Amino acid sequence: MKQIFVIVCIFLSGIMYAQNQQTELKLGFNVASLNSESDDLTSRISFHAGFGMENQISDQLSLLPEILFSSQGAKIKNGSKREFRLNYVNLPIMLRFYPDSGFYLEAGPQAGILVSARQTAEDEYDSDIENLKGQDYGFNLGLGYKSSSVVAIGARYYFGLRDINDYEFGEKLKNGVLQISLSFYLN
Fold first, then answer.
1. Do the beta carbons of residue 25 and residue 67 sit within 8 Å?
2. Helix (H, G, I), strand (E, B), or coil: what is residue 125?
3. Distance between CA 51 and CA 59 in Å, rounded?
4. Which residue in 67, 71, 104, 175 is deepest, having the highest Cβ count within 10 Å?
5. Which of 104, 49, 93, 91 has its CA nearest to residue 71?
6. Angstrom distance (rounded) from CA 186 to CA 22
7. How far apart are CA 88 and CA 116, in angstroms?
């Protein structure tokens, strides 16, 4: 899997080198959840930030690889104020379609690397979470508006396809993240 990802990245970088490019700085907030077999978890509000390179393929299509730090996870519903804080470095590769001036639709795969996993409760404890897989992968769908100047606003939903629970007898856990972003184009 890692070798295929590296080969795809090298191939895409060759395509991107020859195209019209714009560097994007992105920041925004997440409404993150862990989709599970039980109803014990609810959404957690957090943030994401990173950058990307939008590469124009044609007048209506572009390819946008990004690297994002994304704080994800979930809250426990039972009122205990416990949170699961999962921090990822995500690598989405989005294909954008511009049907009309400025408006876009986007879709693409995403791979993520877990950099930290903490369980917290209001001033009671803060501890590492074990038994989580270090990688995640899934698919993004989104839409947005890119102004003719230097700003864009977008929304995207990440559908996690991998069960991130590494505990043999535990329930399946998959990431789900709604991202609302503001992007600034540097060139």
1. no
2. strand
3. 22
4. 175
5. 49
6. 7
7. 7
**169 has pLDDT over 80:** no
DSSP 26-64: EEEEEEEEEEESSS-EE-EEEEEEEEEEEEESSSSEEEE
**Shortest CA distance to 148 belongs to which of 33, 53, 22, 47?**
22
Using alpha carbons, list the distances in angstroms from residue 90 to 14, 43, 102, 137, 150. 21, 19, 25, 9, 24
Q: Hey, is 150 helix, strand or coil?
A: coil
Q: Which residue has the higher pLDDT, 134 or 19?
A: 134
Number of Cβ within a 10 Å radius of residue 92: 25
How many domains would you assign to the chain? 1
CA distance 92 to 26: 13
30-44 pLDDT tens trace: 999 998 877 778 899
- How far apart CA 48 and CA 4 sit, in angstroms, is 26
Domain that holds residue 154: 2-185
Sign of CA dihedral 7, 10, 12, 14: negative
- CA–CA dist 172, 131 (Å, integer): 12
Model pTM? 0.86
